[in-house]
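Table 4 source record.
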Amino acid sequence: MKKFGILSREKMKSLCLLLLVAQFCMPLQAAAMTIGEERTISEQLLYSVRAQFRLLDDPDISQYINDLGYQVLTVAGPQYFNYHFFVVKSDQFNAFAAPGGLVFFYTGLIKTMKTENQLISVLAHEIGHVVSRHIAQRMAKSGKISAITMGLGLAALALGNPELLIGSMAAGQALNLHYSRQDEEEADRLSFGWMKEMHRNPTAMEGMLKTMRRITRYRSDKLPQYLLTHPNPEARANYVESLIEIDDKQKVPGYYKKTDNFRFLRFKYRIMLQSMDLEQMRIACTNLATSSMDPEQQIMAEYGLALIAREDHNFSRAAELLKKVEAAYPDRDILEVDIAVLKMEAGQLDEATALLQHAVKRDPTDMYAVFELAKARIQQKEYGRAEKLLHEVAKAMPEYSQLYYEIARAKADQGLDNESRFYLGKYSLYEGRMKQAKQYLTRASKDTTLPEPLRNEAAAILERLKKLEKS
């Protein structure tokens, strides 16, 4: 029999977050769960995930994965929700689709992927669950429950700590939130069809399922969260193989376009840099760079080594490696931004600024370039130009916490401490630090020296938080 002792600090923290979800939620009938109620639950779940995990939402990472998501949604048709796709820093092998169009990918899962099509296959599968409203249907079959129970169950699955709910009413509900074989087949069938329509070869689904099957066989003592909520990888693999066998497009030359994995591999290495031990990453990249038979994998491993060299402040080595990657991909404009960031960190501010200005002029919608140019302008003490750029980022990515930190820093440099505190409040809010956010925003809402629009915004945020807590 398993013995239960005192919860660890991390598990206690997770339990508190689960209870936070509970206090936000309203009683409801599962069978009568509305689209609006799904949105409310997803909003609360996002607060919990922000508080527990770090979201890797740098502009280039966020824009890439959301762009892929929107490609799938374009072929999936009109939706009830505004979808948003997040990368969560966690070693868990997990992905999670919440009601309301939120889809989370954990870095532990992304690191196992080899191609962009594999990422799209999992992303489309999760969209398939949301489109089919599988969680809502599972709840409806459970009879009368409360949103408190659902919120706890969803949070337990998202945070990867369902054992925290043992003995509680939500424990059973968390177990009921796993997908059935029929749910999985429906999501796989939708994903397969959408990939075909996108001219993306759905054989990538088979590759991911083989990875999942291998993990199931070798880690049966403690399966990853993804394989608990998405069971039967063996059956799923067989089902997908049967779909591939009858796929008439496999015999049409050129129907499935050859996928360029530059964007995916760049995305993957940037995630690896922020989520794993540098020495382990160095070994993995070195092995690929020296022994891979795939030229694309080989050269992009050099990109990973360039990131490591930059992290080690070996700027000359990083520049040398980036130049090699740029020579292989001369038409990839984003590498110019990477080189500019390297120059900025190396103290070559004027050269970095010139490159970033060129990048923003070429593509004003590239928020990676816009954000980095704003940071360069702050270093140059050109605060007006910096803030204008940062507000452009805010329009495109209103929940990106770091941009508010940069605005707060610019305001503080100018002696505008009252405005700096307001933006630190927004930074804390989107970092999941609710207590600090309330403190900063309460002070801002009462500060008559603060510009009226900022006071009103602070008050509106506090009112929204108050309503969520009262519910």
